[in-house]
Amino acid sequence: MTTQLTPLATRPTRIGRITVLAAFLWSLLALPIGLWHLLDPENGPYGHENFEPTIHLPEALPGWIAPAALIAAGLLGLLIARAEPRLWPLTALYAAVFGLLLTTVSPMAFAGYMAAFAIPLAVLAGPVLLARGTTARVITGAAIAAILIALISTGVVDPAMFSGFVTNFGDALADQWAYLLTQVWTVAGGAIWTALTLQHLLMRGDGTAERTWLAPERAAKWGRTASWIAFACALPYGLTRMTWLTPWPWFGGPIGDEIDPAIRVWGLLLGFAALSGGVLCLGMTQRWGTRWPFWMPVVKGRPVPPMIAIVPASMMAAMFTFMAVPFAVLGFRQDAVELVWAFPFYIWGPALGAATLAYAIRRGVVLR
């Protein structure tokens, strides 16, 4: 059977126009951010004590060089956002610099803690949603409530500990909001410029797709492989944290050891969050990634709007990819090389990105 390729539109697609607009707006934001740091380097977003860039500028350089370069990059970005595809090396350079060299591990830590906060909610709501029928869900919800009350009354679960988590997390956000927003902006820039580069590379001058591997039936095959690779990348950290529940712990201690309970809870929640993220990577090729499963109220059985899966998956693929370099550098700087294998973002990010691209092709979002 001959593989047929669906031609790409000669005019920019809707996603293409959105990507160009995003690159333009991102470049526009570079101007006030650079100006802020230029006028107030100590209190600016890059003056925070947690800012640990992957590559340090030579100390001999004047302090105004970095913010001035950021402003210049913003001005140039305004021009190349609508550049022709033949200038893709320039957009790729922006993606590499902002995605790999100027990022820190802070956005990943922030995302991890946000995901960890969701785990208790998922544990409580999951059984109720999985129960079939209204009666079964009411009984399941009542049973979970009774168990939770019993755990709290016996002291096994301490509500004060979780309220302390929320308070500490809120205090950290209040102290680091400007720094974190700037880091999110940096990662978003890497993602936007990567998307713009891919958009250029996936097109020829005549508006047709460049490779036969972009055909939907081909994409289904390599996309399935990529999604399983992404799933496997979640296992090292997730399973390492699960050993805290056994007498043979790694990088921690078993239940009953002298480790601070708050640290233990955070570690377990982060481990469950990593494993849950790995399962979500499989959604790019599973049926529940295209149709809502039975346990989803109201929408069960209906088609999943493609962008509901593509947008968050693309964001996480970009973040994972861009975290590869700062995590590796941090591991070697702090003599913690376990970070290199516990967080294989250098494989996880590209694999999830490939799985997401295959999903977008199969759902008719990229190729029409």
UniProtKB/TrEMBL annotation:
Keywords: Membrane, Transmembrane, Transmembrane helix. The chain crosses the membrane at residues 20-39, 61-80, 87-105, 111-131, 138-157, 177-196, 226-245, 265-285, 306-329, 341-361. It comes from the Bacteria. The keyword Membrane applies. The keyword Transmembrane applies. This is Uncharacterized protein. It comes from Glycomyces rhizosphaerae.
